[in-house]
Design a protein that fits this description.
This protein has about 325 residues and is of the alpha+beta class. The protein folds into 2 domains: about 140 residues, Jelly Rolls (Sandwich), CATH 2.60.120.10; about 160 residues, Rhodanese-like domain (Oxidized Rhodanese, domain 1). The chain has 6 helices and 18 strands. The chain has a 5-stranded antiparallel beta sheet with strand order 3-4-11-6-9. The N terminus is likely disordered.
Length: about 325
């Protein structure tokens, strides 16, 4: 593998982890490149099998994508376009891209974000499953080979119950971090729902994920609880009914609160009501507090969570996504 240059670049929207680029010297043969790409592709990174309900680029953009190999393990696509060409929205399972030309590309994602990337001949890039629109924004033709993984694999990182604090454990035993929840939602937003169970005050004034529904598990009261030294919270009697209004019991749900304890209780309530595929976001929106008294951040929620992970969030309110009936 002499002559290989390893570069790491920042995570782009719609991926899990960093892009890994292996830029080969141009003296390498095409055969060696493809074999190496297949080797990288088949490492145990895991992938989601393609679902017929997800837009297949070989059908949505048949003038640009051509299937050159397909079996039960992989599908290999040849992609070509010209400056100014743009695809329709489509879905890829985990895949490896090998660049056969220099080109510049914009990828646009379902949440409205986009990224522009320059590619060079010989770039080999791994990307996680995602839904996007691609546009050639440069002045050269695009030509790439894409190797898609066809085998299904787990879609969340398994965790031992012992790793989850007791207050954050659920009866379903399904957990994700904020980053994992966002990655899974972005890869397939039509088949995943994010529910923020914090109070409307937290949702509005602390900020929230733009795609998240606000269905409070508890409402804030203004009755002081001297024993707990904070204002008491009251159960939302309409919580389960409100969730059923936007989701079915078999749907994939990611439930988030401030730091993972309230969401665990909300997941348990939904499980008791017949929901079976509900994940608790263990670090929540704000994350866990620093417990070291010597730290200047003692008591502050800077360890993890949606906001600390650098994931997109907003203060903007869409009243249609808030279910506040008691």
């Amino acid at each position: 593998m002499s002559g290989v240059v390893w570069d790491y670049i920042d995570t782009l929207p719609g991926t899990r982890g960093s892009f890994l680029i292996r830029r080969y010297q141009r003296t390498h043969t095409m055969k060696r490149i493809v074999v190496s790409a297949l080797f990288l592709f088949l490492l145990p990174a895991g992938a989601r099998a393609q679902d017929g309900a997800r837009p297949d680029p070989a059908q949505t953009d048949a003038d640009k994508y051509h299937v050159i190999l397909k079996n039960e393990r992989v599908r290999v696509l040849d992609y070509r376009d010209h400056p100014g060409d743009k695809t329709t929205q489509h879905f890829h399972p985990d895949f490896v891209l090998y660049a056969l030309s220099d080109f510049q590309r914009r990828l646009m994602f379902p949440d409205g974000t986009s990224v522009v990337k320059d590619f060079k001949v010989g770039d080999v890039i791994y990307m996680s499953a995602q839904t996007h629109i691609g546009e050639n924004v440069g002045d050269t033709d695009t030509r790439v080979v894409i190797v898609e993984l066809q085998e299904p694999a787990p879609v969340a990182v398994p965790r031992e119950v012992g790793e989850i604090p007791g207050a954050k454990q659920t009866t379903l035993g399904l957990y994700v971090t904020a980053a994992e929840a966002y990655g899974r939602w972005k890869a397939d937003p039509e088949h995943a729902t994010v529910i923020d169970v914090r109070t409307p005050e937290e949702y509005m004034f602390v900020g929230h994920a733009a795609m998240a529904w606000n269905i409070p598990y508890l409402f804030q009261s203004y009755d002081w609880d001297s024993a707990k030294e904070h204002f008491a919270m009251q159960p939302n009697a309409a919580f389960v009914t409100s969730v059923k209004a936007i989701a079915n019991p078999a749907d994939t749900l990611f439930v988030m609160c401030r730091s993972g304890a309230r969401s665990a209780r909300a997941v348990n309530a939904l499980a008791e009501a017949g929901f079976t595929n509900v994940y608790s976001v263990v670090d929540g929106m704000e994350g866990d507090a620093v417990k070291d008294p010597a730290s200047p951040s003692h008591g502050k929620r800077v360890l993890n969570g949606w906001k600390n992970a650098g994931l997109p969030w907003t203060y903007e309110i869409d009243p249609a996504r808030m279910r506040l009936n008691h």
